[in-house]
Amino acid sequence: MNPPAELDEVTLFAAKFLYWARRNQIFGTFQPFISYRGQECEHWELLPSLCRGENKKLPLELLERIEIEVILAFRSRLALSEDWTEIEVLAFARHHGAPTRLLDWTTNALVGLWFAVADSQYDHLSGAVYQLLCGEPGPIGLSVSAPKGPASCKCGLPVHVFSSPAKIARPQRQSSVFSLAAFTGGYAVQPLDQIHGPEQKRQIRKFVVPAGLKRGLRNLLSDVGLDAYSIYGDPDSLGKAVSAKLDYGQCGIPFDALPKSGYMWRDVKGSPNEGLGSASDREGT
User: Is the dihedral of CA 10, 39, 91, 98 positive or negative?
Assistant: First the structure.
């Protein structure tokens, strides 16, 4: 028989988060009817990088021109062949930091949680994970396949959601999904959670991640294999993952209580112990 569970605050929060996420489930399809987005500040708006900050004040025609320039720059400077559609180029550009109208989501709730806690410089701010439900009737629709271009979808809805194009390698690690809001009607510069009709059920739900739990949640997610390297897969992200794992400041133990040598492990109450010891040494503690 398994011993009775004693859940610490971080593990209990993770359990509540998964319960919240799984209140809506979809079966029999791989289409992204349910997606998640983590943000390191709960007050940041759900806007794509092209339409944030001062860019919101720019004419829509200028924002559309910027998007075209992004496509042209990536096509020409990286010699992307003509079989790359405009959406594939934009997805590639987005995952390398260029401003686009694409907003990143993921079908993996824990990946969404990772993005809400990943950057320690925002540990003083509460984060948020958003859940997007495309199965609900409303202005956000699901595209079975990625449209060829930003304006090529004929569904008539102001926002559509699609899985990341197969050409893009990194999003496969992130179970990546994109939402794309139309320039027509100014939807691209409206926060996504504010786009809904008066009689329509909101398609986006929000789960707040308290600032005080972020460090512990990063450690927990690292323990189950979610870190910068598993998300991004490049040497720079491996360096970040290794640095985070070897940062004793992340363990929440006062430095004067750290062991002088060897590794350190903690029991559920957070007590530091020097050396790993054997499995039998740790059973029952």
Answer: negative
- What angle (nearest 5°) sits at the alpha carbon of residue 76, between those of residues 72 and 80? 100
State pLDDT tens for residues 158-185.
898 988 887 776 656 788 899 999 998 8
Q: 128 has which bridge partners?
A: 39, 208
Token pair for 278: 């054997």
> Is-contact 191 77, C-beta < 8 A?
no
Count of alpha carbons within 13 Å of 91, Cβ hemisphere only? Answer: 28
pTM for this structure?
A: 0.84
Contact 265, 273 (CB under 8 A): yes
